[in-house]
Specification:
It is a single chain. The protein folds into two domains: 5-142 and 195-272, ATPase, nucleotide binding domain (Nucleotidyltransferase, domain 5), CATH 3.30.420; 143-194, no CATH class. The chain is 48% helix and 19% strand. The protein has ten helices and 13 strands. The strands form four sheets. Strands 6, 7, 8, 9, 12 and 13 form a six-stranded mixed sheet that branches. A three-stranded mixed sheet has the order 1-4-3, with helices on one face. Strand 3 (68-73) and strand 4 form a beta hairpin. Helix 8 (191-206) crosses helix 9. The longest helix is centred in the C-terminal third of the chain and has 32 residues, at 250-281.
């Protein structure tokens, strides 16, 4: 798996559009491809993410599956000593707090992290850094839904199957129309379809929030942030919506920080235990 994976892919593209995707062979293949790119034979701690709705039920199983020896091809293996699964938007919260040097301050505040991704639209309410489970959830209303709706509309318009999701995605992000049958295809009339997905997702999220007026931080991240921004701002007209540079990578950058913090806390606990045992022996 790498930046040019699309060049090697065939016309069938597994999008992992089901709740058991972390248990699928495709997921494991992508994981091992990523491990192979790290060029390490041993990883002390691997941090992985889960959609919020699956976090409680899948966390233990995913951590177990990630731990151990993985064959990454060419006769090479990577051993993962320990895995830590976190809810995906928790990574973004850590990243945002770190970038804005608000780690101590945000620990006393209530935050809403909104993460429109490829497969799911996730949101997480956190008190400090702790997830408020009853107000946090995810639904299958991500960018893939937008791309499929637009592709279906284009198919009806041109009279032949059209499934170039990457071209649609690029057009949405850049404003440059995709080229179909050697001509630029104007997608402006299809934008209401894309906006309807964002509106539905944000509307569903608001039903879970008990006290929106108490939110001190609303943070929008994820690969679909650019498309969901309008719906989020309309839903919270009296709040400032915070964003980060390169929102697609906010979760994974937070995962790295969370892993480093976790490793330091474990090492500190081990030192304390060793000191205690040494003192007791003395």
């Amino acid at each position: 798996m790498g930046p040019e994976v699309a060049l090697a892919a065939d016309t069938f593209r597994a999008k992992q559009l089901h709740d058991e995707y972390t248990e699928s062979p495709e997921y494991m293949a992508l994981l091992r491809g990523a491990l192979g790119m790290m060029k390490l034979s041993h990883i002390d701690l691997l941090v992985v993410g889960l959609p919020v709705a699956l976090f409680a039920v899948k966390k233990a199983a995913l951590e177990k599956a990630m731990t151990g020896k993985h064959d990454v091809g060419d006769g090479k293996t990577v051993t993962v000593a320990k895995a830590l699964a976190v809810a995906q938007p928790q990574g973004a919260l850590v990243h945002y707090a770190s970038v804005h040097q608000k780690m101590a301050e945000i620990g006393k505040e209530q935050s809403l992290i909104i993460d429109p991704g490829s497969r799911t639209f996730d949101w997480l309410v956190a008190q400090g850094m702790r997830l408020v489970q009853k107000q946090s959830h995810s639904i299958n209303r991500g960018m893939s839904d937008v791309l499929r709706l637009i592709a279906h509309a284009i198919t009806k318009d041109i009279g032949t199957p059209y499934r170039d999701y990457d071209a649609i995605d690029l057009a949405l992000r850049t404003g440059k129309p995709p080229v179909i049958f050697q001509k630029p295809y104007d997608m402006k009339h299809l934008m209401p379809l894309a906006e309807s997905v964002a509106d539905q997702a944000v509307s569903s999220m608001k039903e879970w929030l008990e006290a929106p007026h108490s939110l001190q931080n609303i943070i929008l991240v994820g690969g679909g942030a650019f498309l969901f921004r309008k719906a989020v701002k309309a839903a919270f007209p009296r709040h400032r919506i915070h964003e980060v540079k390169e929102p697609m990578f906010a979760n994974v950058r937070g995962f790295q920080l969370a892993g480093q913090n976790y490793a330091r806390s474990v090492m500190a606990a081990e030192r304390d235990r060793a000191a205690s045992e040494h003192g007791g022996a003395a």
